[in-house]
Amino acid sequence: MRTKTNQSKKTLNLYLYISPAWIMMGAIVIFPILYLLYISFTNMNIYHWTDYKLIGFHNYFKALTRIEQGFLKALFTTLIWTLSNVLVQVVLALIISLFLNVEGLIGKGFYKTILIIPWAMPSYISALIWRNGLFHNDYGMLNGILRAWGFQKVAWLNTDSMAFVSCMMVNLWMALPFMILVIFGGLQSIDRSYYESASLDGCSSFKAIFYITLPLIRPILIPAVVLTTFVTFKQFDIVYLMLQQTGLKTGANIHTVITYAYENAFITNNYGYSAATSVIIFIIIVFLTLCNKKYIKAE
Quick one: which of 73, 102, 255, 90 has its CA closest to 180? Predict the structure, then answer.
């Protein structure tokens, strides 16, 4: 009996020891999520800041039915943004990593140092350099080169299509080093005897990439691709800093789901609607996470 009592006291003490952490987690993580869920069912906005009321699923219905200028358009843009960025990153990183992995390459350490610089720079500095230094309509370097060659200047950030490509270039410049490091590390772990045996059997370098390189780096590449996909899907800084800063908007109407939720919350002050879109984004991310876990277990 005394043993059970002592065990109960130890268990109670353990819960008491970790209770501050649970209280802090509840205040920082759980409460904001529950409050966000509550707000999503209200009409809270700048006109109903204190006298808001419950309106049911109206905000969710509005988010999931407005196609042209609403949440669904931002979601579609986000999917295209994520898929195109991840695909181009993997292809370019593989090509550059294969170049760096060439035996006897002169200056390999210098190339790797140069490639890591964009990854180490703060996103705001990178966006400022690209926006004002390269893409500016009047004194940007790219338009300066075009004018010197006799071409008309290009409004890089003023139209949706050009702004999308321009933001994608900035994102690739910032995110590509991570994928290069991952793939290059995987290439370094491959025994060169595989390639020597394949060349003796008449296998070309192109076929060796598909039948030797990619299968062997797949265990390293898949987690990197999944991580990059999640980071790119919920990316905010590049699109916002390049196109959506208050007072510095360029004219392009491009929104990812994150910038769309931000604009509705802090620009138009439609907090109930923004909360609903945030909950939808949260559900999508949780769904993708569960699918990723299921895929990893299947592997």
Answer: 90
For the chain, which domains are there? 68-298 (1.10.3720.10)
CB within 8 A of 52, min separation 6: which ones? 42, 43, 44, 45, 272
In order along its 299 residues, the chain shows pLDDT tens digits of 556 666 777 777 777 878 888 888 888 888 888 999 999 999 998 888 888 899 999 999 989 887 766 899 999 999 999 999 999 999 999 999 988 888 777 877 888 888 888 888 888 888 888 988 888 888 889 988 998 898 888 888 888 899 999 999 999 999 899 999 899 988 888 888 888 888 887 788 788 888 888 888 988 898 899 889 989 998 898 999 888 876 777 778 888 999 999 998 888 889 999 999 999 999 988 888 888 777 776 66
